[in-house]
Design brief:
Strand order of the largest sheet of chain B: 2-3-1-4-6-5-17
Number of domains of chain B: 3
GO biological process, one term (chain A): attachment of GPI anchor to protein
Strand content of chain A: 25-35%
Shape of chain A: elongated
Helix content of chain A: 10-25%
Oligomer: heterodimer
Keywords (chain A): Signal
Signal peptide (chain A): 1-17
Number of domains of chain A: 2
Structural class of chain B: alpha/beta
Largest sheet of chain B: 7 strands, mixed
Helix content of chain B: 25-40%
Distance between the termini of chain B: 95 Å
Largest interface: A-B, 38 and 33 residues
Pfam families (chain A): Gpi16 (PF04113)
Number of strands of chain A: 26
Protein name (chain A): Phosphatidylinositol glycan anchor biosynthesis class T
CATH class of the largest domain in chain B: Alpha Beta
Largest sheet of chain A: 11 strands, mixed
CATH architecture of the largest domain in chain B: 3-Layer(aba) Sandwich
Radius of gyration of chain A: 32 Å
CATH topology of the largest domain in chain B: Collagenase (Catalytic Domain)
């Protein structure tokens, strides 16, 4: 029933859509509790064409490279995120759109794809070419097929999880070379619209940077007889404005991006900047935004009432007074209490133990809701070279054992596939749940070590998916109208919202051999052999004969000199 | 080999034609192609052969009969000869009329010699010439021997991707729309259907915004327009190409056709050739890459028109240029026709049968040359690394490639173009598969010189006493020579 409602809203929001496609760009600026500023860009391209049939080959707003990819490999849904840094939920609050450190790719394929593994391999290779990322390192040793954690976000008739592939490369470093191809997919590039702010040298001089591409089919109209394709390109960046702004929490667009906005992308049908000015701690008018926003929008986002100051770049009023838009935010008086409102759910993960033989992975999940319990799905992907002891799996909440209601465990195969552990755990109200599992470190073959093996081996973040109870009853808001990601994860009912969190990636040391050892051995043996050979050779080839001492040693000569001086005949 | 059957119209039989019909005559012509690798030189130059089948007493009915000559698997030409000008519907001064299919009308005098000469000319036009062979083998011919045209042709491949891109660098002023689907169906698809014998084609299109040329055009005061001069054209493509993107779906070479709508501040924009005259089509092509056409938008008289200005591209004008460029890139241009020749327009298909024959021929030739180069370099690799492992499947691919190549050569000699082309395609596929087999990677094998480097710690200290004693022996020998035999 909700799906129908969603569809209605979609149709209402995009009534003007033509076959040419619709582009909408949004920027959300959100001051974070500790004084950082999060900027979230989202570019939505919607195309009313059926990519799947392969008949479409004439691209307008939708990028050709991605369209061909979707058509050629039978992709139903594609989600790729490249992230540098870690979103710390505890100090920054819930992420607008979570992503694990490194590269994450999950794809739903069509049920007509004959060989999903082959399509997955080819797809990751092509994506690696498109985004200049090392996605070609995705192979069977880091690919899993989760059963419960990832559901299709678009229109789907059936969720056969065998059509899903999920992989994370936690070692991946994201930098300018990944940003440039991402920007190239935008219809306006970085020449106009909100994308002019995306200046690589500022974006990567930040605490957190995450760029993502989401492709999914959505309903074209209310009847949902035809599908449209939606491409969302999102970019989240967190600036540490507190340290760069001499201890002040004030910020402006120019300070953060060293650019200002001058116009909207001419192809966009919507171009808006949202500034989160929701009153914290019931204190109003603590902050001041200049220039005056064109409108104020109220929405319920992630279970909390949020107020946005909206700047509509398409409205002619905005650029009447000044040629460029430089949104500024000033705090009227320094916020004395820096008390953090802890998010309802947050999690940590660490590795413990000593020595290089065994260890323990511990995951801590907190539910800070005062009175409501909720279930969470935990997905752990552990590489095969950490051999998990499943019998040591313990889940403890408030000192008591917590039995998961669903466990899916797929053991690893050496050099073939990783461990996959999925559990549905009930989190009681106001509790901390500790999940521990022990492992043994495997010895790798010497060619399997990556460069710099003493740095350690990464274990990808575990994924927490939950329906978190919301603080405020959510009305059936117009999903398409509200900014950013609320429309990507529609809420199932009014009392809870979907949240996906990623924990820290782990860095585990494996027993590492001394790689110069073979050469050292060769050198040492060779030297010994050479010395022996040399002495033998000398022994065999030299002739020995007794030699008469002719002039004597130094002492004798010295004595002779003295004797000569004294006039005594030499010895 | 090209076999030409000649049908004489009544009253046109040359006096010195032997009485006995059919009468045959074979002409052979060698085309010298100097090659780098000797294997390539086995490519057969085409021979001209003709035979006069019979003198037909048909009157005006020959034209329908001629056009019915089956597009068989072998190249078979039919020529009609006539000495009476009134019988042939040819304009004055035109002596040879080449039809859409494999037929031609030739007006010859009474002598057999003139007939020979005319047929020779005809064969020059419709069959492979020395220059087109050289173009097909351009990669294997030493530099400096080829004209610029030889480099223009696309290399033979199993498939091609054709991408039409509309570049709109100024979406604020121009809202450009093109009916590319319709244009492709109307103008491009018939040509590609005809060409589908040669390769697989896929067509797609895209619109790119804010894509600018790499050169700032010069303002010309006289015509109050902007000018791109010919010498700056090579710099135009690079920044655009970065935006074009490569195809995700296949590995075939891409042919790019760009339609550039100049910015409002730079329009109208015209291309000037080397002499300074504007190019009529306002387009240029880049060899083996594609073509660019500049499409100027008429500036409305009143400056009050609201921007963006909606522009619908006239696809007929654009596709005329792009199709001409496509023909050029495939090397099916009509080159240097003798003055008394008239060639029938190929119509909507854009390609006459005999042109397709020539293309097939050239591609088959090029494929065979590619196979021989690939296999030669594979053999060289095997010579270099003695302990390389050739798996059975690689070996069978090599055998298959050699067999198919020989097959192609034989079929080509017979004149069976289609089967020769198919065989050459198979040969290319097999040889490439063998050459690019992952087990044949050069780096998989440990080079010998590095093995020696590892054993240097052994060899170096062992060499020291040997060298020292050698030096000592030399010194002693020299001393012995200086003071010969001083025995006690």
């Amino acid at each position: 029933m909700l799906a129908v409602g969603l569809v209605l809203l979609l149709a209402a929001g995009l009534g003007q859509g033509t076959t040419r496609g619709v582009l909408r760009e949004e920027l959300l600026l959100r001051p974070l509790p500790v004084g950082d500023v999060a900027a979230v860009f989202q570019f939505r391209t919607r195309w009313d064409a059926d990519l799947q049939r392969g008949a479409v080959s004439h691209y307008r707003l939708f990028p050709k490279a991605l369209g061909q990819l979707v058509a050629a490999h039978g992709v139903r849904e594609l989600h790729l995120a490249l992230t540098q840094g870690f979103w710390s939920t505890q100090s920054w609050g819930q992420p607008p759109l979570g992503a694990p450190a490194g590269a994450e790719l999950w794809v739903w394929f069509q049920d007509t794809v004959p060989d999903v593994d082959k399509a997955w391999k080819e797809l990751s290779n092509i994506l690696s070419g498109i985004f200049c990322a090392s996605l070609n390192f995705i192979d069977s040793t880091n690919t899993v097929t989760p059963t419960a954690s990832f559901k299709p976000l678009g229109v789907a008739n059936g969720t056969d999880h065998r059509l899903l592939r999920y992989a994370v490369l936690p070692r991946e470093v994201v930098c300018t070379e990944n940003l440039t191809p991402w920007k190239k997919l935008l219809p306006c590039g970085s020449k106009a619209g909100l994308a002019v702010l995306l200046k690589a040298e500022r974006l990567f001089h930040s605490s957190y940077h995450s760029q993502a591409v989401h492709i999914r089919p959505i309903c074209r109209d209310a009847s949902c007889l035809a599908v449209s394709w939606e491409l969302r390109q999102t970019l989240t960046v967190v600036f540490d404005s507190f340290t760069s702004g001499q201890g002040k929490k004030d910020w402006s667009l120019f300070k953060m991006f060293s650019r200002t906005l001058t116009d909207a992308c001419p192809l966009a049908s919507e171009s808006k900047v949202y500034v989160d000015i929701s009153p914290k701690n019931k204190e109003k008018d603590l902050l001041e935004v200049t220039p005056t926003p064109t409108s104020v929008h109220e929405a319920i986002v992630q279970g909390d009432k949020t107020t946005y100051a909206v700047y509509d770049l398409l409205s002619p009023m905005l650029f009447n007074t000044s040629r460029s838009l430089n949104v500024q935010l000033k705090w009227k008086r320094p916020e004395d209490s820096s008390e953090l409102s802890t998010p309802i759910m947050h999690a940590h993960r660490y590795v413990s133990g000593y020595g290089l033989q065994t260890g323990e992975i511990s995951t801590l999940i907190y539910n800070t809701h005062p009175y409501r319990a909720f279930p969470v799905i935990l997905l752990e992907t552990v590489p095969w070279y950490l051999r998990l002891y499943v019998h040591t799996l313990t889940i403890i909440t408030k000192g008591k054992e917590n039995k998961p209601s669903y466990i899916h465990y797929q053991p690893a195969q050496d050099r073939k596939r990783p461990h996959l552990l999925e559990m549905l755990i009930q989190l009681p109200a106001n509790s901390a749940t500790k999940i521990t599992i022990q492992f043994e470190r495997a010895l790798l073959k010497w060619t399997e070590y990556p460069p710099d093996p003493n740095h350690g081996f990464y274990v990808s973040s575990s994924v927490l998916s939950a329906l978190v109870p919301s603080a405020i009853a959510m009305k059936n808001v117009n999903v398409e109208e509200s900014p950013l990601f609320t429309s990507l994860f529609p809420s199932s009912d009014g009392s809870s919202y979907f949240l996906r969190l990623y924990t820290e990636p782990l860095l585990v040391n494996l027993p590492t051999p001394d790689f110069s050892m073979p050469y050292n051995v060769i050198c040492l043996t060779c030297t010994v052999v050479a010395v022996c050979y040399g002495s033998f050779y000398n022994l065999l080839t030299r002739t020995f004969h007794v030699e008469e001492p002719s002039r004597g040693g130094l002492a004798k000569r010295l004595a002779n000199v003295i004797r000569r001086l004294r006039g005594v005949p030499p010895i | 080999a090209v076999s030409v059957s000649v049908v004489f119209l009544p009253g046109s039989v040359p006096a010195d034609l032997p009485r006995r019909l059919p009468y045959g005559d074979v002409r052979e012509e060698r085309v010298p192609v100097s090659c780098k690798s000797p294997a390539v030189c086995t490519a057969r130059p085409p021979r001209g052969a003709w035979e006069a089948l019979r003198a037909v007493p048909y009157g005006d009915t020959f034209l329908p009969r001629l056009s019915r000559v089956a597009p068989g698997s072998s190249v078979c030409w039919q020529s009609c000869l006539c000495s009476q000008p009134s019988l042939l519907p040819l304009p004055q001064g035109v002596n040879v009329y080449v039809g859409k299919h494999r037929s031609a009308l030739v007006r010859a005098g009474q002598g057999l010699a003139i007939l020979h000469a005319r047929l020779q000319q005809l064969l020059q036009v419709v069959s492979l010439t020395a220059s087109s062979i050289a173009a097909a083998l351009s990669d294997r011919v030493p530099d400096g021997q080829l004209g610029p045209d030889a480099w223009r042709h696309l290399k033979s491949s199993l498939g091609y991707e054709i991408t039409f891109s509309l570049l709109n660098p100024d979406p604020k002023s121009h809202d450009v729309d093109w009916d590319i689907e319709g244009a492709v169906n109307h103008y491009v698809q018939p040509v590609l259907d005809k060409l589908s014998l040669v390769a697989n084609f896929s067509v797609d299109s895209q619109i790119l915004y804010y894509a600018v040329l790499g050169v700032t055009p010069r303002f010309d005061k006289e015509s109050s327009s902007f000018i791109l001069s010919a010498h700056s054209l090579p710099h135009v493509i690079n920044p655009v190409e970065a935006r074009l993107g490569s195809s995700a779906a296949s590995l075939y070479p891409v042919l790019n056709f760009l339609l550039y709508v100049p910015e409002r501040s730079h329009s109208p924009l015209y291309i000037q050739d080397k002499d300074g005259a504007p190019v009529a089509t306002n387009a240029f092509h880049s060899p083996r890459w594609g073509g660019i056409m500049i499409y100027n938008v008429e500036v409305p008289a009143s400056p009050q028109t609201s921007l963006p200005l909606h522009v619908d591209v006239d696809m007929l004008r654009v596709m005329e240029v792009f199709l001409a460029q496509l023909r050029l890139l495939f090397g099916i241009s009509r080159e240097e026709l003798p003055p008394e020749f008239l060639v029938e327009s190929p119509g909507n298909e854009g390609l006459a049968d005999w042109e397709l024959d020539r293309l097939l021929w050239a591609h088959a030739l090029e494929n065979i040359a590619t196979v021989s180069t690939t296999l030669t370099s594979l053999a060289q690799l095997l010579d270099q690394i003695s302990n390389i492992v050739i798996k059975d499947d690689v070996a069978s691919e090599v055998y298959r490639a050699v067999a198919a190549a020989q097959d192609a050569v034989a079929e080509l000699a017979e004149g069976h173009l289609h089967s020769a082309f198919q065989a050459s395609k198979e040969a290319v596929t097999s040889s490439e598969r063998a050459f690019f087999d992952p087990s044949l990677l050069h780096l998989l094998y440990f080079p010998d010189d590095q093995k020696f480097a590892i054993y240097i710690p052994l060899f170096l200290p062992m060499a020291v006493p040997i060298l020292l004693s050698l030096a000592k022996m030399l010194r002693e020998a020299r001393q012995n020579k200086k003071e010969p035999t001083k025995m006690d």
